[in-house]
Amino acid sequence: MIKVLYKKGLKPILFKTDPEFIHDAFVTMGQKIGYTKPGRALISSMYGYKGPDISITVDGITYKSPVLLAAGFDYNGKLAHVLDCLSFGGDEIGSVTARPCEGNPRPRLKRMVKSKSLVVWKGLKNQGVGRIIERLKSVEKPEGFIWGISIAKTNDAEASTVEGGVKDYHYSLKRLVEENMGDFYTINISCPNAHGGESFAEASRLRVLFEKLATVEHNKPMYAKMPIDAEWDEFNDLLTVLDEFGVHGVVIGNLNKNYSDADFPEEAPEEYRGGLSGKPCFEHSNELIRKTKQQWGNRFTIIGCGGIFSAEDAMTKLDAGADLLQLITGMIFEGPHLMKDICVAYARRNEQEKQSPEEVKMTSETVK
Ligand SMILES: Cc1cc2nc3c(=O)[nH]c(=O)nc-3n(C[C@H](O)[C@H](O)[C@H](O)COP(=O)(O)O)c2cc1C
Fold it and tell me: Among 87, 193, 312, 325, which is least packed by CB within 10 angstroms?
């Protein structure tokens, strides 16, 4: 019923309105509702998972659900106190940067409806690490809910050199650690929309970055947000550097820069204006997850991200080798019940594994 209401009632109206306006309106509404007990109870009653325990411990952190909100939706941490009501196990807040960022000029978000994708050219709009830390300090953290913080470099000329970029990432990480804010950190090395491009998604520069980040002492898991359209050799070189620095895992991965990967490329802007989310990321992400698992076994925690639109898609990512999941676009296209659906399928998968541990893999048929 709730699903039909969203898809047939609300979505057609929402999809006629400017996507950035809708995004901001939902964040403001969610933030306000989350401050009230009845508001939280109402959201939980509709979208909260209430089945058997599906908690999972990864790198010493216990998540109540394996589904996290990917970086870019809650970029100022305004929903960090309410997302647990939507069956999320955690929120990857950000990407945050050392200085506030206004983002790229509008329009910077476009729907590609037939291709099930968004063209994202936000340019790391956020209020800056200092302000976001203050906000997170001011709200009550839901019990057992995990806050990851994604760190990128400020989208300005000062941070566009290698030296400036390293300084920028280092400043944000240091501030977060000083304030003991966040349960894990993800270093976003692959934003396709910032000043100076993806300058740290290249092995030698990545090494320079992590040499500096390694000087900040802390005991929280560190992940790297990986590019999704890199060739395997290039991708594997990045993994080799991350291995050298003891980085715990990788989020695979970021937006897809290649418009021809969309099912209906004619929906894309004529000239490059940001990376694609959603379906054009799905296969690339799965392929890189599989290869990472094949090559590196359990060395890296893998957070599978890109194009999850159903419980079946989520199970495909887990089958490929993901330990945890992240999403944004599927929630926008399918509705806020998606995370609960995934939790239900995940519980069934766990049950099946217990009954027949030999047949660990769940086929898509079982999920339907
Ligand atoms: C509106 C929007 C903003 C995003 N901003 C960020 C960001 O700031 N940092 C980041 O690491 N990824 C960002 N991403 C990429 C997502 O985290 C994710 O990698 C990508 O959208 C693929 O997942 P999806 O298909 O479930 O949306 C953004 C995505 C969207 C849709």
Answer: 312
